[in-house]
């Protein structure tokens, strides 16, 4: 272990698929192709990022940490591309405690046609995980090396599979001619609250912590006749005839029978140097709590002069590195070194000198970054967006090619609700999303000790980059009247309904918040009433817009600007409904067309009218959490308000139609005064 790493790691076993292919080619032997599948960039960020388990047709794999992506990038003649989003980049650096971290896309290059070779040297490296497999023909349970790998078709990666070459079937009849049978992953794993993940120790489990008395390497079987009923399999040793069911490892009682965590990070192929003393938990390969991404995202806004100067200084510093201090007094040399890498041709000597001096300012120390991280609020990412969307537009349209943002003003329809004071058509937008780590067992929102629980993406303590995606799309921005929202919110805070939601949130927080976290006030995680109202409004608009805009409801997403006044930021009450795509051309404009005055007022009126009724009423309209209930919604269900996972930023929490409109027995609706 060196000063540049924080884990125990064997560098001779690095994952390098293309390097393995080259070695096999030099030996002039037949080899399997390295590519085993494909996925969309958004999927590799939110569902199957480094450390997760991705299902392929025949087996499962785990994308490796970003260290193993470096050999992929180094095979290119050009420098790796970066995504320009300074505001998000600065937040990522704070969360990663790395002052030089950059945002890079996934390694990928489009092909001219299906059989061309462009981009064959690019891809996301992965390892087979778990590496215990079960034969589907005879139930043999064994390590990866006991099975044959087959992947010979260059254009059918779905046919890649592991096979048991000499399977004689479940009867064990040795006189029967052996057959090749496919093998599937053994689906049990061990996980701990600090994000470690390990193979299940089947051999020690079936022998109750001891070695087999009959064989040094005992033949094991996993007998499972009731698939889909939890840990129903039975592990059987064919040598000593011992067997043990997997359901003994379930629940609180099962934890005491499991071994302590070894501190393994399989995506980094590394172990914690001081081990891990946490209890382990039984985890299934497809469990939803196996991997929770920790992501941050922004909608890129035009930069101010101050932001441009800061970004230029940062690019000079990261480009020149150690040469900056050496040549800081020689501007001609600085220009030569930056030629083709950072454009400074339009700067005078005085301006370049000022940028170089700013670049020489030492970056924040780890202690300063830790303090900044403690004080950081995710709302800080939204404040610049809100401020820019409130600026007056000269004329009817403004476009900024660098940020990719294009806004157009829209007149308010005569019958549009007066509470909506401003409408903008976001004709073009660019959204950048970055991955900073992940958690296991507990979602990032349920973790109060995030710096400790966040699993790193690299073995190095200060990663040079992290993976990000860039989406383009369109949207509609609505601003609500702040004075009416503030007055309504003040009234709501004193109601019995709000106190019931507040008490339910406390119960939910205490029951489901991470048990490893330090003391956190539940009220600090409760969204204010204006958030509940605007969130509900966004959901009913998504439902109504999907009927006429040409995009499915799952393709539309919300971005909420809803917070009261606080130190350093003004109050906000608005929302952006947008749709984005990873394609460079973005989307087709069907959503923006609905921002026209006559169309928008019909959409809003229809959405509010439909929200008055739900097929689950009166149960839905009168739903109020009472002890011991702890759900985080009121008059809202899948029949009337709730949206798909891709649309909602809060997993359908903090919703109540009664905050939006008056329902029978309730007079709390924000939009009801106008009606």
UniProtKB/TrEMBL annotation:
Residues 537-641 form the MrfA-like Zn-binding domain. It comes from the Bacteria. Residues 102-121 are annotated as: Disordered. InterPro entries: DrmB (IPR047721), MZB (IPR018973). Pfam families: MZB. NCBIfam families: DrmB_fam. This is MrfA-like Zn-binding domain-containing protein. It comes from Streptomyces caatingaensis.
